[in-house]
Amino acid sequence: MTKPTDPFEAALAALLGPLAQAMVAHGVTIGTATEALKNALLHAALATSETTINDSRASLMTGIHRKDIKRLRNLDDGSMLRRSSNATASVISHWATDPEFQDDEGEPLTLRRNENSAAPSFDSLVRKARIDMAPGTVLRALLDQEVVTELADGSYKLLTHAFLPKAGSDAQVAAYHATLSAHLAASTHNLLSDEDTGRFFDRAVRYSHLSEASVNALNATASKKAQELLQDINALARDMQKIDVDKDENGKFVLGAYILPTLPGSKED
């Protein structure tokens, strides 16, 4: 008698498909992938225990050898790259939405690095966004990503209201990490929660048997409305942060949006 397939095993296989595509594209081999999985399993085991667990207990929970457990406990988690990505996104957000850095038409001001006058500057923007990084470092990242350009008079102009890293860049990898990990964390919370535990909002609309014209029209409408929602929530969160910033609080909020249009006849069809 054939053993029924565990629904979670089927879900895991489906989740690993797109991830494997990204891994192959970035030259990640099975050895590197295994190392990352070991690290993730260890951190999951540590997070589920209310008390500190020793290497033997962690090995029993995960199946990872104790010598690997000891080594993995001391690995750097790459948080610096994520911090840099978050910093640039936050600066763009403030520059694009904070009235202090907008002109009378609501467009982002061009900014000089650091004016002696009371006029807004890039350095004051970084301080306003409460970024714990040197303004010059943040500016260089924005210039490298071609999100900001330097004008002939030495001032800087914001070219986009959203942080869209260059394809294949470290910043794009950090954004991929931040976006997918947050969505997966929300979905995993819902998967593991019981009836007494609140669930996070996680919904999707799916339609098939659509023409190319319909897919394109839905993509355009959804992109426009999703961008409007993100901008509205971004402005609201920024105003709330101004009020909360001096309180000893560490609450976090993430809102994401994704759209997957698949045209008839494509490989994903």
Describe this structure in words.
The protein is mainly alpha-helical. It folds into three domains: 1-75; 79-158; 204-245 and 252-269. It has nine helices and two strands. The protein has helices at 7-25, 30-48, 55-62, 66-72, 79-97, 122-128, 135-144, 170-192, 212-244; strands at residues 148-150, 156-158. It has a two-stranded antiparallel sheet. Helix 5 (79-97) packs across helix 7 (135-144) and helix 5 crosses helix 8. The model has no long low-confidence stretch (mean pLDDT 84).
Give the tags.
single chain; 269 residues; mainly alpha; 3 domains; two-stranded antiparallel sheet; 54% helix
Largest sheet: 2 strands, antiparallel
Number of helices: 9
Estimated structural class: mainly alpha
The overall average pLDDT, rounded, is 84
Give the topology string: H per helix, E per strand. Answer: HHHHHHHEEHH
Helix content: 40-55%
Kindly summarize this structure in a few lines:
The protein is mostly helical and 269 residues long.
What is this structure's SSE topology?
Blueprint: H1 7-25, H2 30-48, H3 55-62, H4 66-72, H5 79-97, H6 122-128, H7 135-144, E1 148-150, E2 156-158, H8 170-192, H9 212-244
Antiparallel strand pairs: 1-2
Helix pairs in contact: 2-3, 3-4, 5-7, 5-8, 6-7
